[in-house]
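Pilot study result, target chain (190 residues):
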Amino acid sequence: MNEGTDHISLKAFWDAVEQRLAACSVDDLRAILRTMAQEALPSGRQAFLERLTIMPEAGVQPSNTVPQDVLLADIDDWIAEVGAQRRQAQQWEEQHGYDRGERYDDENSLGPYAEFVEPLIELFGRAEGAFDYGDLPLARQAYYKLFTEALELEDEYGRGVRAEDLNGIDMAKARACYLRAVYESEPAQR
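Predicted structure:
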């Protein structure tokens, strides 16, 4: 882990979590959860409680795995949802007056696609998680879909979610992870 940075790889994070949990007694864990509950903002209290009840239903993830098995399907679902929105682009343009020659609003350049930004940021994060955890074939496939399909989607007006819309995602690092995943997962003779 690099000193002075807030970024820690997913594998290192899970290893540190498991190490700290192993060192805690049941009373220690209760004290930690109480402290976390006290720090919860009023708007986040219900979500905090829901997360406490979800864990027993989902089961505990082994320390050496990260839930990534549905990543590619989730990317495909995101692409399908954006595709459905693309088919309604004309209607959105008419509702917002752009087809009548009214001034284009640069602040709303995403148009009807603003709601898709956060889910795409999450998908990039999960692809990075697959890479960090060493599942390079999955990372390769996920990054390929994200770069060549998700970020290339646009409607007839040229609107869509672009790399520059994904605040918090280091695109240079994401590209480097993709290239490394390709390099590491290709047979040596290639």
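One observation from the pilot: Confidence is low (pLDDT under 50) at residues 55-66. A full batch analysis is planned for the follow-on phase.
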